[in-house]
Design a protein that fits this description.
The structure is a single chain. The protein is an alpha+beta fold. The protein has one domain. It is 34% helix and 25% strand. It has 11 helices and 18 strands. Strands 2, 3, 4, 5, 8 and 9 form a 6-stranded mixed β-sheet that branches. A 5-stranded antiparallel β-sheet has the order 16-15-14-17-18. Strand 15 and strand 16 form a beta hairpin. The chain is globular and about 70 Å long. It starts with 5 loop residues before the first strand and ends with a strand.
């Protein structure tokens, strides 16, 4: 289940930008890099990469596809026909070629854990000289990479694969919307999506929201970013590589996995009831969480319902080192073992997973210390993701409280989609804000209610309702 972020366009109110900055400071989101970290990163990207032991794939036409402003490019692809199927070569930035174990950059990356996004910017995992320069798969020269080579049948079923180090050269930096220029991407992405659906995968796509200037009392409004088909094709390619990596580690009995438990049936039923009441239309053949994931209707209402659907899975989402106690690692939304390996510029764990996959694919022994490193990573990644989630939720709370602060006392139509110990979980029809209505635990999911906005305080980031 992907996470989509809230973004801010230029010229949103300064008070909102000041609020985002204050949240980052309050939560201790890492800011500027220490001088020694910057100096070490700059020195690392100036030093030539030793091509020894790397395959030379520079003649292949790799390309990247990302948001237009991105410069931290983790992935480049080259897709060729292979019989009636495809041969996918997926190059991933080889961060390990630039980071000295135990050095200043390495220590700082372990402190940060992940790139943390807020609407008006980000706190990167690595200094820009590395993440937006020497290690990024920009189309300005040769780059070291870890390459997944995966044959994929016409029906989207992956075959035997290998993972190896190489030198690559990206030919173009494409933006979403340009995916049709990538040979065979649409056909491969469509086939992979069909195979994922057959095995029971459920993807909750959350289109990005953007804070944009508007002629309103608050000076801004919320708008949905357009999600283009090539974003989904690109996501399927990444998913294919991550599943392939997970199978390789699981067969070896070692590694680090991304895990997610099954959906809570009661919560899913509540979401389905709410979808019906909201007038959203799931496909007739879909059921369970898939019905919610496939709802169609007003964009903002669908967005909020899908955001609620992300909460329909139990706690336990996160990273898990293997071997460990319990059942083998599994990701219910992917419906397969799953790992994170394709975003090493943005996630610390991916660098170590890639290093392990190269060794396993070559049939070499697991490097000494690997088990200890993998055992440390879940706590580090969990802490970093929790901080990212807190910041994301606080920014959304701030935006919603600011949008509603002039409407205290107004009546709103709402739909119940679930309950918790504090009350009924409701979603307004317009604007599609989510909240908890205290003391309404007995209200069945799908029920329509009239509620009154009791409080909207941007300073405390609080929006509260009472029964009408």
């Amino acid at each position: 289940m992907s996470r989509r972020r809230l973004r801010a366009a230029p010229k949103v109110p300064e008070t909102l930008l000041a609020g985002f900055a204050q949240l980052r400071e309050e939560m201790g989101v890492p800011a500027a890099f220490p001088d020694d970290v910057v100096a070490e990163a700059e020195a690392a990207v100036r030093a030539p990469v030793d091509p020894a032991g790397r395959e030379d794939l520079r003649a292949l036409a790799f390309v990247t596809i990302d948001p237009p402003s991105s410069r931290d490019l983790d992935q480049a692809m080259c897709i060729a026909p292979d019989g009636d199927g495809f041969l996918l070569r997926y190059a991933i930035a080889d961060v390990g070629a630039f980071v000295r174990p135990g050095g200043a950059v390495d220590r700082e990356a372990w402190r940060r854990g992940t790139t943390i996004y807020s609407p008006d910017g980000r706190s990167p995992l690595y200094p820009p000289a590395l993440s937006e320069g020497g290690a990024s798969l920009l189309p300005d020269g040769d780059r070291p990479a870890v390459v997944f080579e995966i044959p994929v049948a016409a029906d989207g079923t992956p075959g035997g694969h290998r993972v190896f180090r190489a030198m690559v050269r990206s030919r173009a930096k494409l933006a979403y919307g340009d995916g049709a220029q990538v040979p065979h991407l649409e056909a491969l992405g469509t086939a992979l999506a069909a195979a994922a659906e057959r095995r029971g995968a459920v993807e909750i796509d959350l289109p990005g929201q953007q804070v944009v200037p508007a002629d309103t009392p608050e000076g801004f409004a919320l708008a949905l970013e357009t999600r283009r088909p090539d974003e989904d094709w690109n996501a399927q390619v990444s998913l294919c590589a991550n599943v392939a990596g997970a199978h390789l580690m699981l067969a070896a009995g070692t590694g680090l996995f991304r895990v997610l438990g099954p959906p809570d049936p009661a919560r899913v039923a509540g979401l389905q009831a709410a979808a019906v009441t909201l007038g959203l239309a799931p496909p007739d053949a879909a059921d369970g969480l898939r019905a919610v994931a496939c709802c169609t209707g007003p964009d903002q209402a669908v967005l909020e319902l899908r955001r609620s659907a992300r909460q329909a899975v139990p706690t336990g989402a996160g990273y898990r080192a293997w071997p460990s106690d319990g059942d083998p690692p599994f990701h219910s939304a992917v419906a397969a073992p799953y790992a994170h390996a394709t975003a090493p510029l943005r996630r610390l764990a991916d660098r170590y997973v890639l290093d392990l996959l190269v060794e396993l694919s070559a049939g070499r022994p697991v490097p000494p210390g690997t088990a200890e490193t993998m055992a440390r990573l879940p706590e580090v990644m969990g802490r970093a993701e929790a901080l990212a989630d807190r910041l994301e939720n606080a920014c959304i709370d701030l935006v919603e409280a600011t949008l509603l602060r002039a409407r205290v006392g107004e009546r709103f139509a709402a739909v119940v989609w679930g309950v918790n110990e504090r009350g009924a979980r409701i979603q307004l029809r317009e604007p599609p804000v989510r909240a908890t209505l205290p003391g309404a635990q007995g209200t069945p999911p799908g029920s329509e209610l009239q509620v009154v906005l009791a409080e909207a305080d941007p300073a405390r980031r609080v929006v509260a309702f009472r029964p009408a």
